[in-house]
Fold this sequence. Notes:
- The structure holds 2 protein chains of 2 kinds.
- Chain A has a single domain (2-256), classed as P-loop containing nucleotide triphosphate hydrolases (Rossmann fold), CATH 3.40.50.
- In chain A, 33% of the residues lie in helices and 29% in strands.
- Chain A is built from 9 helices and 12 strands.
- Chain A has helices at residues 40-48, 70-76, 92-97, 112-124, 140-154, 170-185, 197-203, 221-224, 227-234, and strands at residues 2-10, 15-24, 29-33, 55-60, 63-64, 77-80, 158-162, 189-193, 206-211, 214-219, 236-243, 248-256.
- Chain A has a 6-stranded mixed beta sheet, with helices on both faces. In chain A, strands 2-1-4-5 form a 4-stranded antiparallel beta sheet, with helices on one face.
- In chain A, strand 11 (236-243) and strand 12 form a beta hairpin.
- The termini of chain A are far apart.
- Chain B has a single domain, classed as ABC transporter involved in vitamin B12 uptake, BtuC.
- Chain B has helices spanning 2-22, 30-40, 51-85, 98-111, 114-117, 121-141, 149-174, 178-188, 197-216, 218-224, 228-233, 238-260, 266-278, 282-306, 315-336, and strands at residues 142-143, 146-147.
- In chain B, helix 3 (51-85) packs across helix 13 (266-278).
- Chain B is globular, with a radius of gyration of 20 Å.
- The model of chain B has no long low-confidence stretch (mean pLDDT 84).
- The chains are: A alpha/beta, B mainly alpha.
- The interface between A and B is medium-sized, with 32 and 27 residues.
Amino acid sequence: MLNGKNLSFSYGGPSVLDGVSVSVSPGEFVGLLGANGSGKSTLIRVLLGVERRGAGDVELGGASMDNLSRREIARRITLVPQDTHLDFAFTVRELVAMGRFPHLGPFQLETAADLEAIARALAVCGVEYCADRPVTQLSGGERQRVLLARAVAQDTPILLLDEPISNQDVAHQLTILDLVRSQVQAGRGALAALHDIALAARYCDRLVVLHQGKVAAEGRPDEVVTEENLARYFQVEALVRRDETLGHLLIWPISPAC
Amino acid sequence: MSRAAFGVGVLGLLAALCVGTLYGAAHIPPDHVFGIVAQRLGLSGAGGWRPWEAIVVLDVRLPRVLVGAFVGGGLAVCGLVMQSLFRNSLADPGVLGVSSGASLGAVIALCTNWAARSEWALPACAVVGAAATAGAIYTLSARRGHIHVGTLLLVGVAVGSFTSAATSMVLSLALANYDTGRQIVFWMLGGLDARTWQHVLLIAPPTLMAVAIAMIHVRDLDALLLGEIQAASLGVDVPRCRWRLIGATSLMVGAAVAVSGVIGFVGLIVPHMLRLLLGPAHRLLLPTCLLVGAAFIVLADLAARTLIAPEEIRLGIITASVGAPFFLWLLLKKRADGVI
């Protein structure tokens, strides 16, 4: 379980995070929402332990991150980055195998268990068919699934996802969120920074809205996604309705709210 | 494919070492060369060769070939490490300004005649120059313990230009004295002539150390190609890993400049070419770079000393004239592929 307590951070200027507390339990899918510049990416960097200069404490599975080595952290939490362009032509299998790095010593070869974890991750994320192709030749949607497969192979109790669907077409957005959902059902905790409020409301168990470096709203999707909150924290005038047939919240953005 | 490439590398290096020892400006029959080496290793008794032949093989060719192998292998590995650390396949050991710092130290040693008084003066000055430059560059680019790679490269270029200017200045002053000036220019061209076992002792430890440290970090190097955040999320202690690798490569490059002058393009071409052939995973790429870099320099040096024997072409000229066209080809190919 992930527990970030009272996190504050600045890059040297005004504070980017100001007393943020956020937690993720096993089997829980938490959506991190917020307008551009609200501090989502910074929060992810802090929770991952990449930025360690700020105030507050991050607990991973009951241990404070300050007492864990980089490798120990990487066995408890990992990141699915936004699909990025790659200059170096690793094969899909090589990239997914990197998920086992924190479990292996410098000269240790992959054990049967490691190889099985890699094969399973490739299968679960549906990228077996391109396992031996260079990642540089894949489409954006395939690459995003490969990055997810790496995190699955890493086998950490907590997954962080930084806008995993922002560059994807609609079908891939749903595929990727379904994959995350199935990982959560298997007992992992996930925290995903998302821009699509409707999809976040539909897939996540709980939503956290960041606004100017603070937690502005938090709770079940139908509590958080309201017309008032959209106007206040996303500067958008929108209609929010619940469709009883689908059982989802539907959101129509109308115009930017001034 | 992968194991085969490594095997080819091992055989290629062995062949290069043999050929480099067998041939040279002086003609010595191959059976004499093998006999001399075997006798030195205590495997056989004296044969029918002349004393000068034994001296040429044992004290001229062998140390020269070994220094070439260590310098070439070490520079290729350092080039690979730099390219991975900076996530830029056009980086090489020169980019950190370390080579030019080492050159400045060496040129000062030559110009002040320290080099004439003790044979350790030039290497010592070169290593001090490399370490001082590296230290200055890292201190200038580190901020609260973090090194921003872009800043590091820019600071490296700036400090490198400064030390090059200082080297030119020392050189232009030294040219008043014809002999010193000539010696400096010759040294700056890079070469392996008149290398002794002392040079082997000087280059072997830093090379082996740098290679060992890089081998410990093969997986970290893979992860670093994905960028700092992904590397960290895969368990790499990025700052510590960077400092270690940069420290080891600086020492290695300083030692290489000390024993052979500035030899360009090995650190660029060899890793780049092998990455195209073998892919970017370091577990295979790194040892193969070591082997191929070593073989490349041994063969380039063989060309340097035999093409117009008894005169020698400077080794730096050979590697640069192979390297520069290759570099251009790479650049044009990348442009054609739309990468830059």
